[in-house]
Specification:
The structure holds two protein chains of two kinds. Chain A is mainly α. Helix content of chain A is 78%, strand content 0%. Chain A has helices spanning 3-23, 31-39, 44-79, 91-105, 107-110, 114-134, 140-163, 168-179, 187-205, 208-214, 218-223, 228-250, 256-264, 272-297, 305-328. The radius of gyration of chain A is 20 Å and the shape is globular. Chain B has one domain (4-255): Rossmann fold (3-Layer(aba) Sandwich), CATH 3.40.50.300. Chain B is built from nine helices and twelve strands. In chain B, the strands form three sheets. A six-stranded mixed β-sheet of chain B has the order 6-7-8-3-9-10, with helices on both faces. In chain B, strands 2-1-4-5 form a four-stranded antiparallel β-sheet, with helices on one face. A two-stranded antiparallel ribbon of chain B has the order 11-12. Chain B is globular, with a radius of gyration of 18 Å. The chains are: A mainly alpha, B alpha/beta. Chain A binds chain B through residues 80, 209, 212-217, 219-220, 222-227, 265, 269-272, and chain B through 47, 50-52, 71-76, 78-82, 84, 86-92, 95-96, 99-100, 102-103, 105, 135, 148, 151, 155.
Chain lengths: 329, 259
């Protein structure tokens, strides 16, 4: 398929899903009311629903999906491994730990933004630890090992917080938060996370040429004038900033960053640089679609977004494994 | 003007000294064959010259100290073809060859007409024009090797450093690759090529550097270096040497007893 056509198609799909996301919800607004709520102040109730509830949800869905798709494509390209995903660096695990600690200590009850702020702090600590462990030019294997170590440590500490949680409600709140959701997010969450995500995107999106060259391995990439230390720094910091912020406001939404680049790779001739914008748009579309899905499938039951992506994503991944085996044999 | 000059070069890999005090210099238009037994330091030498390894001593490329050339400018002076034929993604052959044009791309823009022409030339040089739209992971080992060589040729640098580019190629493509190198050398390019096929080195290289245990032990035209005496010492094999209308013919024929 023509590359520009593919990007245009994905943009249209993402835009339509963004609009659909604004129109779906328990308030059951019809289209004119929804539009009036969004663009005028004539109906205060509709304005409240649209601008305070649905708009931030749709914006976050788009941005978080784009973050997961883009960072997944960068991680797979940088590590030259189709099984890499944005969580591989341990940043999401550390951000989750920060959020869990905010609930554990009761800070999140006193001050709502304490949760995303602590989660972002968790991500920052993870990056510092990662740089300390893996250095600036230690190679991809060290980076993966460091990421696994950080993920394990954050997971253990999260379990500890659950284990020692002051009461069952706090434990349940932590569990639910970790499942990943966009329900009841406000514009404050958007303002808090958007700068990190945008800075992260800026770092990741200039890596296309370096990732292309890395197709031939680090030695050849270096001989083609690619600075490996700079590439690693941008890939790590860009992923950490965008994924850390995404996890901080929405919890862990799995499988999107792993599967979206896989899905798109055949359509872009496997070229890593072309995969970046395509994955970002497709990631946004998939998260928006899944977030519409949770509202339609089980209205009123608060089905978690991360649960849905995992339930759809895992079988899809199985299918990829079967397909891969068929291709190899 | 000297294409490449190496002085007092030493290099270590993981704390083990691999190259000791190597010195030589190469004029433009030479095809220099690097030969030597396994573990002699050939690959380390080539990677040092390509600026990919730390080293002590001085390497001068096109009159500039290798240490002072930034990565970006270095990529316009030296192309490097590793022994490993690693391709991470199933991209098309023409896209792979086009990666050789990376150093010349302007920020935020794709390849220009010159880039596209170089890519087509490079494909033609390795006899792979009809493979251009094939996916590299579907190609045979030899075909993929030729595409990777085309990538290095498309980089169009004064100095080409190639680590065993002929390994795994059939005789026709081995010879045609050496012909391409000869043609590039006539155009003023300098080729440094590590070879295990002594016969190819004898026939096509203008000069041979023989390494053993990280030391340069012989340096000169093929007929001076590829002698029975030198080979007994370095490789522990008996060498059959003959002059023919096609040039120097050498063939290792038997292993000496004490190895």
């Amino acid at each position: 398929m023509n590359y520009r056509l593919l990007l245009a198609l994905l943009s249209v799909i993402a835009a339509l899903l963004f609009i659909a996301s604004l129109l779906v919800g328990p308030a059951n607004l019809d289209l004119p009311t929804a539009l009036a709520g969004l663009f005028s102040k004539s109906n205060p109730a509709a304005t409240l629903v649209m601008c305070e509830i649905r708009l931030p949800r749709a914006i976050l869905g788009f941005m978080i999906g784009a973050t997961l798709g883009l960072s997944g494509a960068v991680m797979q390209g940088y590590l030259r491994n189709p099984l890499a995903d944005p969580a591989i660096l341990g940043v999401s695990g550390a951000a989750s730990l920060g959020a869990v600690l905010a609930i554990y200590t009761g800070l999140s009850a006193m001050f709502p933004l304490a949760l995303p702020l602590l989660a972002i702090s968790g991500a920052v600590v993870a990056v510092l630890l990662l740089q300390m462990l893996a250095g600036t030019n230690a190679g991809t294997l060290t980076l993966i090992l460091a990421g696994i170590a950080i993920t394990s440590l954050a997971g253990a500490l999260t379990s500890l917080a659950l284990n020692l949680s002051p009461n069952p409600f706090a434990a349940m709140e932590m569990m639910f938060w970790m499942m990943g959701s966009l329900t009841d997010r406000s514009m404050q969450h958007v303002w808090l996370s958007a700068p990190f995500m945008i800075v992260g995107w800026a770092m990741l999106s200039i890596l296309g040429r370096a990732l292309n060259a890395l197709t031939l391995g680090p030695q050849v990439a270096s001989s083609l004038g690619i600075r490996l230390d700079r590439t690693q720094m941008l890939a790590v910091l860009g992923t950490a900033a965008s994924v850390g912020a995404a996890t901080a406001v929405a919890g862990t939404i799995g499988f999107v960053g792993l599967i979206v680049p896989h899905l798109l790779r055949p359509f872009v001739g496997s070229e890593p640089s072309r995969l970046l914008p395509a994955s970002a748009l497709a990631g946004a579309a998939i998260v928006l679609a899944a977030d519409i899905g949770v509202r339609i499938i089980a209205p009123g039951r608060d089905l978690k977004l991360g649960v849905l992506t995992a339930i759809v994503g895992a079988p899809f991944f199985l299918w990829l494994v079967v397909k891969h085996r068929r291709d190899v044999l | 003007m000297t294409a490449l000059s190496v002085e007092k070069l030493s290099a270590a890999l993981k704390g083990r000294d691999v190259l000791h005090n190597v010195a030589f210099s190469v004029e433009p238009g030479e095809i220099v064959g690097i030969i030597g037994p396994n573990g002699a330091g050939k690959s380390t030498l080539l990677r040092s010259i390509a600026g990919l390894l730390p080293y002590t001593g001085t390497i001068t490329v096109s009159e500039s100290n290798l240490r002072d050339i930034g990565a970006h400018n270095r990529a316009k002076l030296i192309s490097y073809l590793p022994q490993e034929r690693e391709v991470a993604w199933p991209i098309s052959a023409v896209k792979l060859v086009a990666l050789g044009r990376t150093p010349y791309l302007q920020p935020m823009s794709g390849p220009n007409q010159l880039d596209d022409e170089m890519v087509e030339h490079a494909l033609a040089w390795v006899d792979a024009t009809k493979l251009r739209d094939r996916v590299v992971s579907d190609l045979s080992g030899g075909e993929r090797a030729r595409i990777l060589i085309a990538r290095a040729l498309a980089q169009d640098t004064p100095l080409l450093v190639a680590d065993e580019p002929t390994a795994g190629l059939d005789p026709a493509h081995q010879i045609s690759l050496m012909e391409v190198f000869a043609e590039r050398a006539r155009a003023g390019r300098t080729i440094i090529v590590a070879l295990h096929e002594i016969a190819l080195a004898a026939r096509w290289c203008s000069r041979i550097l023989l390494f053993d245990n990280g030391r340069l032990i012989a340096d000169g035209p093929p007929k001076d270096v590829l002698t029975a005496n030198v080979f007994e010492q370095a490789y522990g094999v008996r060498l059959h040497v003959a002059d023919s209308p096609d040039g120097l013919i050498v063939q290792p024929v038997a292993r000496l007893a004490a190895l």
